[in-house]
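Tutorial, part two.
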Amino acid sequence: MQYSNPGQRWLRHATVEDIPAIEKVFAHARQVMAEGGNPRQWGTKYPYPEMIAADVRNGNTYLLVDNAGETPDATNGTFEAPELEEVRGDHERIIGLFSLFDGEDPAYGDINGAWLDNDPYMTIHRVASSGLGKRAASDIISWCMRHYHNVRIDTGPNNFAMQHILETHHFIRCGTIGVLDNQNPDMDESRLAYHRHDH
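Running the prediction step on this input gives:
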């Protein structure tokens, strides 16, 4: 699909060739979180290179992109909601990214609280913005909820921006979960657990 406005966004699966750019987006996201008072959600290392590569290789990573590389002012304005289109723009920019998983998440088995239900669900992980455009996380969450009706996600207790986005999109805070990461001692082990199920 070709978009008449280069600022129009779409989603596509990441490929191995995208990994260096993905790593830069995550580095930017860690910096923004640290500067915003949330340095311990991802620490200084997460997500790890082997994790990034596995997500891409297994088809779990999605990129939110536009084609405004030579016309950055084109991102100003209102466009159609992004959809999945497996095309690469000639002047493509990564606006944001995330990983999406189908099936039970091992980290979600033990919750201090209670999920909304035990029905099959999708899990969103590793949402990050490149800083090249606004509302990246909101576009990502909106797309997921347009296509999947039972979705879980977690975020750091100090990630107030993501908490606001999730609650704006009618996710319910269900409690806390723990994540143990021996590779990254400067990372918090506690996460807020969110769930939305549209019946």
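Residues 36 and 161 are 9 Å apart (CA to CA). In part three we will examine how such features are distributed along the chain.
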